[in-house]
Recover the amino acids of this structure.
């Protein structure tokens, strides 16, 4: 059994059924960031620890609801204006590199979040989704100041995109959602079941609250607990502000980015009181676990550490409730047609 399997609490027998390894992928292909799996992997097959291809169902495992991927191939996938290659840290985090962490832990589906390096060009993420059918869904970034952002939303939705990442950028947090383009995005989200996915701090939550009242049918996802505790303390006022969104039934929260919040030290049990309150307010059906890789696997943190907090330490959850956090909520929001 590999160290990754042992760290995730996976048995050798379980690994033979679930571990996705690139039997058709060359080491050189992974290093170059190329998307070069064979036909079996493209069809969603899995391989056991010995590299033998076996049948596998991506829907049977956990879902990591927040991962960024990028490639060192900046010729084929150029960086957006203002970004430099030396800012890509690590220099590479391809799907194949992600799988080395995720598959031994029983994660079989992943929601990709468009990386800021690429700006509004979602090409790399779309190519990854297309290369591994059934494995990935996408959250894209588009220009909300464009004349008709809903046209681009509908185009991307045809290629596996299920949500759109939005954040205040340089606008005041009390007015950052007031533009006509943003209204068009929220309206399209309601019509097509596409989520508005927010990377925000707690001070941006009141504006989101107002938009939820205006567009009650739009799915809304709050990333990383609204970054509560990013500066250390888990403040009750911040948690209460997040809990106020629970009255909107189509609002969800990602239980994620543990490495960056509170004490920032595994096993991250200092975050449990906040998670318990969110379970009480939103219910497990509107919470979803995620890692925020590759950042979760840097500076001594591990993928297994992130999974273990939800799987092993939230003893107030029933088995069914834990299943919602680890799989079912993200599946409904990002993988179900018309979610």
């Amino acid at each position: 059994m590999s160290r990754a399997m042992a760290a995730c609490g996976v048995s050798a027998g379980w690994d033979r059924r679930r571990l996705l390894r690139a039997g058709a992928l060359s080491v050189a292909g992974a290093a170059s960031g190329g998307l070069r799996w064979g036909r079996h992997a493209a069809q969603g097959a899995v391989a056991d620890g010995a590299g033998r291809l076996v049948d596998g169902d991506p829907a049977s495992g956990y879902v990591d609801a927040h991962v960024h991927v990028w490639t060192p191939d900046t010729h084929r996938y150029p960086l957006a204006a203002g970004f430099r290659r030396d800012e890509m840290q690590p220099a590479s985090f391809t799907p194949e590199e992600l799988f080395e962490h995720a598959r031994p832990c029983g994660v079989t589906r992943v929601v990709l979040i468009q990386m800021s390096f690429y700006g509004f060009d979602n090409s790399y993420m779309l190519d990854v989704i297309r290369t591994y059918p059934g494995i990935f869904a996408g959250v894209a970034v588009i220009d909300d100041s464009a004349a008709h952002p809903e046209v681009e939303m509908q185009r991307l939705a045809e290629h596996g995109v299920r949500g759109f990442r939005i954040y205040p950028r340089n606008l005041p947090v009390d007015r950052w959602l007031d533009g006509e383009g943003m209204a068009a995005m929220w309206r399209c989200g309601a019509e097509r079941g596409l989520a508005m996915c927010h990377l925000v701090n707690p001070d941006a939550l009141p504006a989101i609250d107002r938009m939820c009242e205006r567009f009650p049918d739009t799915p809304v996802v709050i990333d990383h607990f609204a970054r509560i505790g990013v500066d250390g303390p888990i403040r009750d006022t911040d948690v209460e502000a997040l809990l106020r969104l629970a009255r909107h039934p189509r609002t969800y929260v990602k239980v994620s980015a543990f490495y960056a919040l509170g004490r920032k030290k595994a096993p991250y049990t200092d975050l449990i009181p906040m998670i318990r309150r969110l379970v009480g307010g939103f219910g497990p059906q509107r919470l979803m676990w995620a890692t925020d890789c590759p950042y979760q696997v840097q500076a001594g943190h591990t993928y297994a550490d992130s999974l273990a907090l939800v799987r092993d330490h939230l003893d107030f959850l029933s088995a069914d409730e834990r299943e919602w956090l680890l799989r079912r909520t993200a599946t409904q929001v990002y993988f179900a047609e018309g979610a």
Confidence is low (pLDDT under 50) at residues 10-55. The beta strands are 46-47, 53-54, 62-67, 107-113, 136-140, 161-166, 195-198, 220-222, 251-255, 287-289.
